[in-house]
Amino acid sequence: MQYKVCDIQKYLNSDDIIYGSMDRYFTNVSDKDNVKEDTLDWIHSNNLDPKNYLDNSKANVIIAPKSLQSYSDSFPPEKTIILTDNPMLLFSRIARDLFFKMPEPGIHNSAYIHPEAIIGENVHIGAFCYIGKCSIGANTIILNYVTIEDEVSIGENVYIKNGARIGQTGFGFVKNEIGGWEKFPQIGNVIIEDNVEIGANTCIDRGALSTTTIGYGTKIDNLVQIAHNVRIGKNCIITGNVSIAGSCNIGDNVWIGASSTLKNGLNIGPNSFISMGSVVINNLPPNSDVIGYPAEPKELFVKKRAILSKKLKGESI
Description:
Elements: E1 3-4, E2 17-19, E3 25-26, E4 40-42, H1 50-56, E5 61-65, E6 80-84, H2 87-99, E7 106-107, E8 112-113, E9 118-119, E10 124-125, E11 130-131, E12 135-136, E13 141-142, E14 147-148, E15 152-154, E16 159-160, E17 165-166, E18 173-175, E19 181-183, E20 189-192, E21 197-198, E22 203-204, E23 211-214, E24 219-220, E25 225-226, E26 231-232, E27 237-238, E28 243-244, E29 249-250, E30 255-256, E31 261-262, E32 267-268, E33 273-274, E34 279-280, E35 289-291, E36 296-297, H3 298-312
Parallel strand pairs: 4-5, 5-6, 7-10, 8-11, 9-12, 10-13, 11-14, 12-15, 13-16, 14-17, 15-20, 16-21, 17-22, 20-23, 21-24, 22-25, 23-26, 24-27, 25-28, 26-29, 27-30, 28-31, 29-32, 30-33, 31-34, 33-35
Antiparallel strand pairs: 1-3, 2-6, 18-19, 35-36
């Protein structure tokens, strides 16, 4: 299907600027290595030479950063250029709406739904799901082979990918008189707030005696383990293979990089950034930026690496 520039004006902000014909069209989106004349292309705000990229792109319609406005007199006349503050965001909104088809509301006939489950309007539940005695908010999408146990509350506009497991009992044991392990009761619940995304094969355990909470707008990648009693704030990013041990309290707007591990019971301050592969064993104050094993401030980590590099080369420190 062809989309003209005039067809996508509804996605633009009032201060965005269009140079070129409104009748130029695109039919597809792609990565930068496969851009053609009829591809909607975009230039990242961090591109070191955006003018060169614009001049050499094969696309006839390009979303570009406003930093290029000073070059507007030399824009290729055969192209339509849309200048905006955040090209990636604008491109994402257009591409998601025009080229990404969300599953239609409905419940697959192979899914099991507990008779006391509360299901909101326009919910999609995929094949071979198990839905226990829980509540699921409106416009939520649950893909295939997902398990949602009893005492789970899921908000609106939540997106849960294939194979996720939510609300199973956590991993808790106490040693008995003869040295064996007896299971500690795992009888709490799970609350997933609105606009959360949960990746494929991610596990979110119910609280032991309290609640495991995933805050509004948080996005969780594939293969993540979130243990009992963990509380994650709003608008966090939890990337692939992260492991968060029990009773961690994570503030708002925290980024946790791939394959990081958080020790149980930690407090992670809001707006913190944990680099990939980090092992966090201590509490982090707000606005922390850490890396390493054990995790330490990135500035200190870089200094240590520089000193070690000099020592290995035999240079004076």
